[in-house]
Design a protein that fits this description.
Layout: H1 11-19, H2 22-44, H3 47-52, H4 57-64
Length: about 80
């Protein structure tokens, strides 16, 4: 049995099917879930603990309320976005 997509599929679908890995999908889902839990736990910290790590209550709440849309792997400060 061939792992290649049928020729009737568009080129983009063939590229996706060729690079698809169930293990990669699971890894992505687990990372997203861990990220979501981390953001929620950050918002639950007390103010003195947030100040120890240099985060304000408003920043912690904003992070916890972020939608679960695909986010960049690295969030640069706004001043770096030229």
């Amino acid at each position: 049995m061939s792992a290649r997509a049928p020729a009737a599929f568009p080129a983009a679908a063939r590229r996706f099917a060729a690079g698809f890995s169930f293990g990669a999908l699971l890894t992505w889902l687990f990372r997203r879930d861990a990220q979501r839990r981390s953001r929620r736990r950050l918002a639950e910290l007390e103010d003195h603990l947030l100040s120890d790590i240099g985060v304000t209550r408003a920043q912690a709440l904003a992070a916890a309320e972020r939608p679960d849309t695909p986010a960049p792997r690295w969030d640069a400060p706004a001043r770096w976005h030229g």
